[in-house]
Specification:
The protein is of the alpha+beta class. The chain has two domains: about 260 residues, subunit c (vma5p) of the yeast v-atpase, domain 2 (Up-down Bundle); about 80 residues, Alpha-Beta Plaits (2-Layer Sandwich), CATH 3.30.70.100. The protein contains ten helices and eight strands. A four-stranded antiparallel sheet has the order 2-7-1-8, sandwiched between helices. A four-stranded antiparallel sheet has the order 4-5-3-6, with helices on one face. About 5% of the residues have low confidence. Belongs to the V-ATPase C subunit family. It holds the Pfam family V-ATPase_C. Keywords: Hydrogen ion transport, Ion transport, Transport. This is V-type proton ATPase subunit C.
Amino acid sequence: MSQADFWILSIPSNGGANSDLQDDLDYSLVAGSTKLAQTIGPFNVPLFKVESLDVLINQNEQLAKQDTQFSAALSKITEVIKSLVSPASEELKDYFLVDGKTPLEYITSFQWNASRFRISNSITDILQSLTSEVLTLENDVRTRQSNFQQASNAYQSVQKKKSGNLSQKSLASIVRKEDVLVDSDYMKNVFVAVPLNAEKKFLSSYETLANLVIPRSAQKLSQDGEYALYTIIVFKKSAEEFISKLREQRYVVRDFAFESGLRESEQNEFDDAAEKEKHVRSSLLRYAKIAFSEIFQHWVHLKCLSVYAESVLRYGLPPDFSSVVFQPIEKAEKKIKVILNQRYSYLEQNTSRNSKTSDDMNANLDESMAGLNLHEEYLPYVLFSIPTKSFNY
């Protein structure tokens, strides 16, 4: 089992209560000379329907598969939120609340939501409901993220027109009406961005690059840290030759035709793109916040189902087990495992089948359990993790 922020432990209660197990762990892990865990509390698991052993084994396998899917969905949504909110922002933690609580508060005060997920339904039906809702939330976040990416790309494209150097940016905000020839039948303006280190060479040679270049027509319109922008007047029939010669000299010819109102039109385009990007970003963040809260709740409900299913498979029917949730102190996980293995070693020899369980059921359960790998590593007790560290709240 991977390192986790929270562990859920289930053992046979033999008629006892969750509080007895909680007291036992407090003594073993908290009250000793070295504190190994904190935030130990009950993890209340309702009594669900057990249709048959074969069905429960299959349900347990499906629960494990969906656990991975739910965890992956939370990771994706976490990445979305963190990509949009600065790590230094005090608001970041607000996007990772679960039903208005921190993940810590929600897990340690967990109660099954019977109004949304009726325990009178089968485990299969409850799992389908959980899975369907998580899939819908995940798909909706993905759709909104795609919309945001499109809006962001459009905004960046428009932004380049305003923020690039003179070889790239739009000339609409630079070229004025008085800088150009208007409605000339024979002559036209050619706009060229000249590297600053080639400016002297350009000024001394542009008139001879082609025929019919108007002498001394070069007019400097703007300059930035890399380029100077010039307009030159040429006869239209020699314009293509002139442009070709400019490119041979590695000058950047700018394809631009002055239009009245173009500057205002591009500014409106920029403002609209910026507003849309802001709106779609805000919508994505709001929904991602809701989706995180909902999927986290569904994930813990799924953990509850898993604790029940595996505890019944491990300890038998009728269900008689206690479960608690606790938070291992960092780097104390191995020590806790040693203590738990020693404290509950008796479960390895005795799966603690309740004496009220029928002999036939126990026999079938023992036979089925022989080939069932309930954990990546075998433990004599039921232990699940809620690895909130992987989400880096």
